[in-house]
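Morning F.,

Quick status update on the modeling queue. The single chain you submitted on Monday has been processed. Sequence for confirmation:
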Amino acid sequence: MRFLHTSDWHLGRSFHRVSMLDAQRAFVDHLVQTVRDRDVDAVLVAGDVYDRAVPPLTAVEVFDDALHRLADLGVPAVMISGNHDSARRLGVGARLMGRAGIHLRTDPARCDRPVLLADEYGDIAVYGLPYLEPALVREEFAAPRADHTAVLGAAMQRVRADLATRPAGTRAVVLAHAFVTGAAACDSERDITAGGVEAVPAEIFDGVDYAALGHLHGCQTISERVRYSGSPLAYSFSEEHHRKSMWLVDLRDGGEVAAERVDTPVPRRLARLRGHLADLLADPALERHTDAWIEATLTDAVRPHEPMAALVKRFPHVLALAFVPERGGEEQHASYAERLRGRSDLQIAEDFVAHVRGSAPDPAEREVLREAFDAVRADAAGTERD
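Structure tokens below.
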């Protein structure tokens, strides 16, 4: 059987205030075309369909379009809720949609009830484990601790117990939304440490033929049978070097797995530029980034005048600008306490202005700071007398 494994669509999410809806629609087009062209038997979506619990109507419309198009193809889809989704909202109508071959798995209590598929080699049980927030599901699974390893381990015990009741030779696939030890994270994933220690060992998925994972946005192979598809689109500049894709997975007789990456459309390349403003504007080697979305970090000792306006003239798609002035000499290596030692409150305030702005206060600004400190001291002295 051939599966198409994807995850982390984050429908409704923007990229530094740039709408991604057109890019998300293009991804859905690409997914449907891949299902047609590559003879896909089932689609697996491992969570974070939406970017937030209450998605905008435009995002719901994109999802609705994807569901109708997959159902029209007669290709079953198994989807789980992720930590960004509202499991209750995503699961509305699940039983009705299941009749059309769209299987939404959002209830932790039903994680051991698989979608049963079949090919010429026999049955395949596809188990959907929605994102499990430890504090909320610990009681359901009678887990010994409220952490991710404990609750996911308990869920997998239920999966293995159900699989043991199936006919001999039944192959098993699990969808899960988690952070597996050894995987690499990036800036656009929401931290899930609040429920306890976040990482779970890959061995937790022992006993199944393939684990289709979601949550991390980089496509990764933890083992031959445990993989992240990653997000189909970049949602942070930390994904600059990601190759966005889906996994085309062939599950053969005896549980043998073969996987191939299928690239997804890239709406615009990402580039992170760093240096003095004059260098970024003049360096001919940066010409290749003219059409990219840009994150620029300026290292000038003094903050340039209207740097964004200057950058946009050369790089029309600058989306993020940071200012990190280069520090030289002993200041670069001195501790915070060492930099403050022996300095007055006024001097510390002047240093702060210089650090943030890149230039020291002028005489008029120093006078304003001095008057402010004098006023605070006078007020404090008056309070003590009272």
